[in-house]
Amino acid sequence: MNNLAMLLNNFRYKMIGTFVGADNEPNIQKSTGKVFYHPVALFKDICLEDGTPVIDKYWFNYVTGLRRLGKLEPGTRLSFFVYCERNRVIVELNKDEFGLMDSLSVPTNFERIDGSVGEPVPVEERPMSGHIFVKNKQKNTVFDERQQWYVDQYMEWKHQNPRQAEGDLENFEVVKSEKLSRRSKERFIVVSKVTGEILDTGDDRKGYTSVASAYAGFDYKMKYLNPRIRYRRRCAKRFLLQHGDFDKKLMDIFDEIDNKGSWEGFMIFDEKIVEYLLNDEGYNDLEFKAKDLYEAWNTL
Description:
Helices cover 33% and strands 27% of the residues. By secondary structure, the chain is an alpha+beta fold. It folds into three domains: 4-160, no CATH class; 168-224, no CATH class; 229-299, no CATH class. It is globular, with a radius of gyration of 25 Å. 23% of the residues are buried.
């Protein structure tokens, strides 16, 4: 079944499809003959948002937005936006005739229909290709030199991104934020199930637009942030909790800026002020950066 011809050319559609699996597509560089691979994902039962069937199966590039959803199991239902393109192509065996070829291009805004969260996979393309090679490897298969290079990229990623302890995903939940929501726009945040502490309010601190995006966004932050960055921020928070005088000084400065609009020439409260204070107080050899301390202070 192929109903691509019913779609308007260069028109953006919202569609729903079922993930089947992934593979690597080879591309040969003409100038050198060198083989490069990029990841692709197979979808089936693709339809419009209203349920109108579009096409039985289709291969998409395994784009960054799709990789950020984490590991996809066969049968996972996803929504996404995509353009229909209608191009002229030379008819086979007759170079004087042209035909039309319909395709789906520029897939974006992938979301899981059920709002579930998958185990992390590489966000960068090359380690992802290595991950797919490893996952699809048949018994007694030997990778060639080029394929092994991609596998090595994946193994390096795996070494630098150890998995979170089991049960981490069970310790938080997504709830509607009454404070951030508006009459026409609901906003969602991530909170701790244990303490009720707000863990994530989105990249712009205005909340997530859906439950699914909140789960995916927070899981991505937990799993993909560089472990060294997480360590520095933990050190910064520990420093604040142990140095009440420094914490009080930060609060006094923030209050002064909030009330007067300035503090010793600074118009905003940011990591530059924190860096100035660290140097002024003699904290010149710490395991974190001023920015980490500023962000840790804002989360207390």
